[in-house]
Write a sequence for this structure.
């Protein structure tokens, strides 16, 4: 038995730090769960990240792991790490509200494959988290369960739709959380809350047992503290699933073993237009400092032109709008008044889009992916952008139910993340600084299909030479 981790430090442990300390016998799982529960009880009344807290079940699971560890039994790669997940991941017999009034009492008969894989790896599930209604806004507003608040400043957005996941990881309520990403819903709360978020290649992770939003753009993935956390999480959850016929058969590498700690010789492209169009000065400053850190670490950063981005941005919104409307068609006919105003308007808008435009958007997807890769990734390993081109907005500034005039700022939140959902490319967001109001700024790194190992290696190398990911809100 090695020296135990100090009790005062427990909630600050990242997912991999916690799991590794548990495996070495330096950490009791029950002690970490209790530390996380104490933080939730002390601070979630302000943050509003949690929908359902399974306190006793989490403590029992942790105690069982401690007993097994003491008996010398083998433990999984995530044993000892407490987690909570966006309330759209089905667990048989447990309510999954999807952040909505319509499904407030829905009890699914199946468990999501991704939860089954986390369970098998030893993750301790503590319950479910707040989210935008049906995962359909980029800010984290929720008219039914209350808005989630940014732990860095409670007046500001968490980002959405995985609002509770981003806020809870930042507030040290747990070590990791599942989010979902259809237009940026992992990377946005990761950025706005100052944590790390990974959207893998489309089809890399099974979507079985997950409330859908867009057949073409939905992704399953983690919000965590570090790129190393994301690498281990993806290794556990990725891979083909017979329950999800869209899941890829591509072999799953050991992403964590690929974290070499260096970006020396890596070529990173920065698109001259679109991602920096109209960007706020503090965001640009933090982004340029991040690029400088990557150059100092040995990366080669060059500017490229990518004219395909105009069409990509337009088609992204069109595809998700139509597919979301199709998924909600019956509920929109039977319960239109049970949706928040902005969501009802968004879904009705999807019904007005002509079918030929939707088919056009889908049919051009492959060609635009090839064009973007040729423009931005030929001779380059990654594309770098700010994750969010504007400063973190307040909840009031992006509340479109209260004031429809906020629509432009509301949609600007996800402008830089949406294109990578349409293209299906693996994309990581890591903290890279703070703006002039003390709110986080994110660096977004995107690579070729199934090049998660390269994306994660760059994010990890960046985090080895910076400490933004180590900073936590005071609460």
């Amino acid at each position: 038995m090695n020296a135990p981790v100090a009790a005062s430090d427990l909630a600050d442990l990242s997912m991999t730090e916690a799991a590794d300390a548990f495996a070495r016998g330096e950490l009791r799982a029950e002690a970490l769960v209790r530390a996380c529960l104490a933080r939730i009880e002390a601070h979630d009344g302000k943050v509003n990240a949690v929908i359902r807290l399974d306190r006793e079940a989490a403590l029992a699971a942790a105690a069982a792991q401690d007993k097994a560890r003491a008996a010398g039994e083998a433990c999984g790669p995530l044993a000892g790490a407490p987690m909570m997940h966006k309330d759209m991941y089905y667990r048989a017999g447990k309510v999954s509200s999807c952040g909505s009034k319509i499904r407030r009492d829905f009890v699914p008969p199946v468990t999501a494959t991704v939860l089954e894989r986390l369970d098998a790896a030893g993750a301790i599930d503590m319950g479910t988290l707040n989210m935008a209604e049906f995962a359909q806004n980029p800010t984290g507003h929720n008219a039914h369960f209350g808005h989630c608040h940014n732990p860095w400043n409670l007046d500001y957005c968490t980002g959405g739709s995985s609002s509770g996941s981003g806020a809870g990881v930042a507030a040290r309520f747990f070590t990791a959380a599942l989010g979902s990403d259809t237009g940026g819903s992992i990377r946005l709360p990761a950025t706005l809350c100052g944590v790390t978020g990974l959207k893998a290649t489309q089809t890399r992770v099974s979507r079985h047992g997950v409330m859908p939003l867009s057949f073409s753009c939905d992704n399953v993935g983690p919000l965590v503290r570090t790129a190393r956390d994301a690498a281990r999480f993806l290794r556990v959850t990725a891979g083909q699933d017979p329950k999800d016929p869209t899941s890829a058969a591509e072999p799953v590498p050991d992403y964590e073993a690929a974290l070499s700690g260096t970006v020396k010789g890596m070529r990173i492209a920065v698109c001259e237009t679109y991602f920096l169009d109209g960007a706020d000065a503090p965001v640009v400053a933090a982004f340029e400092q991040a690029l400088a850190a990557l150059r100092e670490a040995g990366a080669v950063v060059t500017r490229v032109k990518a004219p395909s981005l105009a069409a990509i941005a337009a088609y992204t919104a069109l595809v998700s709008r139509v597919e979301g409307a199709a998924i909600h068609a019956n509920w929109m006919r039977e319960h239109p008044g049970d949706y928040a105003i902005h969501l009802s308007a968004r879904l009705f808008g999807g019904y007005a889009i002509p079918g030929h435009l939707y088919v056009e958007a889908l049919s051009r997807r492959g060609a635009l992916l090839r064009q973007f890769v040729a423009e931005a990734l030929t001779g380059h390993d990654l594309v770098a952008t700010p994750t969010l081109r504007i400063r973190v907005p307040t909840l009031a500034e992006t509340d479109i139910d209260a004031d429809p005039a906020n629509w432009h700022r509301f949609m600007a939140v996800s402008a830089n993340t949406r294109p990578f959902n349409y293209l299906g490319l693996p994309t990581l967001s890591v903290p890279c600084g703070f703006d002039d109001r003390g709110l986080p700024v994110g660096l977004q790194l995107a690579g070729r299909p199934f090049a998660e190992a390269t994306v994660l290696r760059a994010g990890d190398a960046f985090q080895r030479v910076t400490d933004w990911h180590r900073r936590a809100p005071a609460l």
